[in-house]
TrEMBL record:
PROSITE patterns: AA_TRANSFER_CLASS_1
Cross-referenced Pfam families: Aminotran_1_2 (PF00155)
Family label: Belongs to the class-I pyridoxal-phosphate-dependent aminotransferase family.
Catalytic activity, as annotated: S-adenosyl-L-methionine = 1-aminocyclopropane-1-carboxylate + S-methyl-5'-thioadenosine + H(+)
EC category: lyase
Any one GO molecular function term: 1-aminocyclopropane-1-carboxylate synthase activity
GO biological process: ethylene biosynthetic process; fruit ripening
PANTHER family linked: 1-AMINOCYCLOPROPANE-1-CARBOXYLATE SYNTHASE 6, BIFUNCTIONAL ASPARTATE AMINOTRANSFERASE AND GLUTAMATE/ASPARTATE-PREPHENATE AMINOTRANSFERASE-RELATED
Pathway terms, separated by semicolons: Alkene biosynthesis; ethylene biosynthesis via S-adenosyl-L-methionine; ethylene from S-adenosyl-L-methionine: step 1/2
Entry keyword set: Ethylene biosynthesis, Fruit ripening, Lyase, Pyridoxal phosphate, S-adenosyl-L-methionine
Protein name: 1-aminocyclopropane-1-carboxylate synthase
Length: 485
């Protein structure tokens, strides 16, 4: 009775990444009402600078068409529907993208195409570049949502390029060539390479040399390069400047067919506005701009949001202050978090950006397998009551890595999360010491645990598919929805 899309399994969210959200949803931590609940550390949200945004809104009431000061524009904005978007919105976003990149590069507002978040932007780009059955190379570990966003409705495949811990997950020419050649042997047509810079989940950004080598790789193969730069303003204060692909292709010594280059952007991470669904496709290819713009009718940003964002992001004083302050607060959060983890013997991949840490828990694995990783993950959710995301859900080739989000909570919640980790590590240490002195076989405390977490994947899928649940923002749990209930 229904289509293949409706009845098949292409949504790609039967994964531990989303199971963790379900665990949180069933038992969400609340400072006063559910102190023992699960703390959500699986959500890459940037909630550290809302005070700055709120102050700006208070000082600029005319920016909203729903305020006494802005009401005079209500009519014009409410009826606006041109899919190119408000010119002032495109100008402001182009301005913001340039400022985030230290004004080392400028963006042409006429190339800004709107979409429903980066989610919609990715899908639109893929619709423009590839046909069903074609494939994109994607270095691992990568954001689990890509398996849905890029594949589900387009019929395009993703071919992982295994990058591993032996060289801190660097993307090498060798790994790219091997994945490309293997796909060719399997008769898979590679149409492009997708990178996320800065990386989710690694929290690192690519250096000039790597970017230059990626540009020469895709030019040699004559395939596209899609650069997801949605974390570009999350680079921590005090770190080297973020390098955008847009800078690299302007360099004199770089030979590049710009028609192959496409940037995906959004305000979900840099500004912390995932609910506004402001996604951007910035392509250097005129035909892609034109096709994506036509397609954007399916996922426009509402004119009310465009209007507000246009005012906010064209205020350069605010933008510069926001970018600097956000980078500082993220740096402080990251420093505190990694330091507290180090105190209890946990190390993380050295990172310089992002809203998360890539935490290495291999020493705690019973054996170096993904089964052991899942067992440990279940204990972290069930007993330590933290929703962190296992590396396997990011296609990480090495077991034992976990992504821990640190910018979606207040200081108090962060401290509680860190003390839970500390208690868990101490318990482990004690139990390891006791067992080695009393028994020959060494067993960590959690390894004897009763592993209780078991979700019917059918139920998860129902939830993920339900209109009130977005994989990026579990609305069921959001304070807003809770307040309404
Ligand atoms: C790398 C990456 N790309 C795209 C997205 C989707 O972002 P948006 O909320 O703008 O759709 C995410 C969300 O977590 C992400 O991490």
């Amino acid at each position: 009775m229904l289509s293949k899309i409706a009845t098949s399994d292409g949504h790609g969210e039967k994964s531990s990444y989303f199971d963790g959200w379900k665990a949180y949803e069933d038992d969400p931590y609340h400072a006063t009402e559910n102190h023992e609940g699960v703390i959500q550390m699986g959500l890459a949200e940037n909630q550290l600078c809302f005070d700055l945004v709120q102050d700006w809104i208070k000082n600029n009431p005319q920016a909203s068409i729903c305020s006494a000061e802005g009401l005079y524009e209500f009519h014009d904005i409410a009826i606006f529907q041109d899919y190119r978007g408000l010119p002032e919105f495109r100008n402001a976003v182009a301005n913001f993208m340039g400022r985030v990149r230290g004004n080392r590069v400028t963006f042409d507002p006429d190339r800004i195409v709107m979409s429903g978040g980066a989610t919609g932007a990715h899908e639109t780009v893929v619709f423009c570049l590839a046909d069903p059955g074609d494939a994109l190379l994607v270095p691992t570990p990568y954001y689990p949502g890509f398996d849905r966003d890029l594949r589900w409705r387009t019929g395009v495949q993703l071919v992982p390029v295994p990058c591993d811990s032996s060289n801190d997950f660097k993307i090498t020419r060798q790994a790219l060539e091997a994945a490309y050649e293997k796909a060719k042997e399997d008769n898979i047509r590679i149409k492009g390479l997708l990178i996320t810079n800065p990386s989710n989940p690694l929290g690192t950004f690519l250096d000039r040399e790597t970017l230059t080598s990626l540009v020469s790789f895709i030019n040699e193969k004559n395939i596209h390069l899609i650069c997801d730069e949605i974390y570009s303003a999350t680079v921590f204060a005090g770190q080297p400047d973020f390098v955008s692909i847009s800078e690299i292709i302007e360099e004199d010594n770089v030979v590049c067919n710009k028609d192959l280059i496409h940037v995906v952007y959004s305000l979900s991470k840099d500004m912390g506005f995932p609910g506004f669904r402001v996604g951007i496709i910035y392509s250097y290819n005129d035909a892609v701009v034109s096709c994506a713009r036509k397609m954007s009718s399916f996922g426009l940003v509402s004119s009310q949001t465009q209007h507000l964002i246009a005012a906010m992001l064209s205020d350069n004083e605010f933008v510069d202050k926001f970018i600097a302050e956000s980078a500082k607060r993220l740096a402080n959060r990251h420093k505190h978090f990694t330091w507290r983890l180090e105190q209890v013997g946990i190390s993380c991949l050295k990172s310089n950006a992002g809203l998360f840490l890539w935490m290495g828990l291999h020493p705690l694995l019973k054996e170096q397998t993904f089964e052991a990783e899942m067992s440990l993950w279940r204990v972290i959710i069930n007993e330590v009551k933290l929703n962190v995301s296992p590396g396997s859900s990011f296609h990480c080739p090495n077991p034992g890595w976990f992504r821990v989000c640190f910018a979606n909570m207040d200081d108090l919640t962060m401290d509680i999360a860190l003390s839970r980790i500390k208690a868990f590590m101490l318990k482990n240490k004690e139990s390891a010491t006791t067992t080695t002195t009393t028994r020959p076989k060494k067993k960590l405390c959690w390894q004897a645990s009763n592993l209780r977490l078991s979700f019917s994947s059918r139920r998860i899928d129902d939830i993920m598919m339900s209109p009130c649940m977005s994989p990026h923002s579990p609305l069921v749990q959001s304070p807003l929805v809770r307040a309404r209930n």
